[in-house]
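[AMINO ACID CHAIN]
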Amino acid sequence: MKNNSFILKEFLDNAFNLKSHLMEFLSIKECDLDGFLANAKMNLANLHPGDDLNDVSDFYTEMVGDRHVADLAAWHITSKDYIADTLKLQQRFSRDLVLDFGGGIGTHALANAMSSKVEHVFFVDINQTNRKFVEFRAKKLGVEKKLSFCKTIKEVQISKFDTIICLDVLEHLSDPSSQIEVFNEIMDSDSIALFNWYFYKGEKNEYPFHIDDVKVVEKFFKTLQSMFLEVFHPILITTRAYKKIS
């Protein structure tokens, strides 16, 4: 296993070989990759049906195709400094059995799998393309034995996790309160959960897939404050660390 400094350096150097993984997985030429990534965010936003969408899971399982992989890859490549800080935070708390919920293209799951403090990572994502891509990346990086891939938490069949990672996910859920209630049930008193959220559709509706309903957001914060106590960390990012209220 690699030490924390090496893991961070490898991410900052090449995002864990993300571009080469994308080219091979999607069978796309290097000369076409930059354009593919540059248009990824707009292409994903344009695909969203807006208020006509009844079930957010349908969007991420049936409609996005490889556009979601491209959008996430573009974000991870252009925002490496910020994401590196979330990896630093993860390194402070991650240990033993880790749940990575809505893990996307796998940056945080792969980094956790590289850590000597982590026994196993359970990568959960409803999008089959994401799961297949991260499984492909894990094999390329030699950490596939420390990762399991599931569509839902129920498939994992683990009653308690030592660490839960849920980043850039809650704002996509129609009922984020219910999700953190589930997290509360599968944490022990010494477990740590890392959450962030962005309940905002943007000034020009560039994030149409985000929830911004005032009542839903208010319910989320009330639920969060009733179940979790924030654990201080010194890294200046939006991600927060939480433990259960005893």
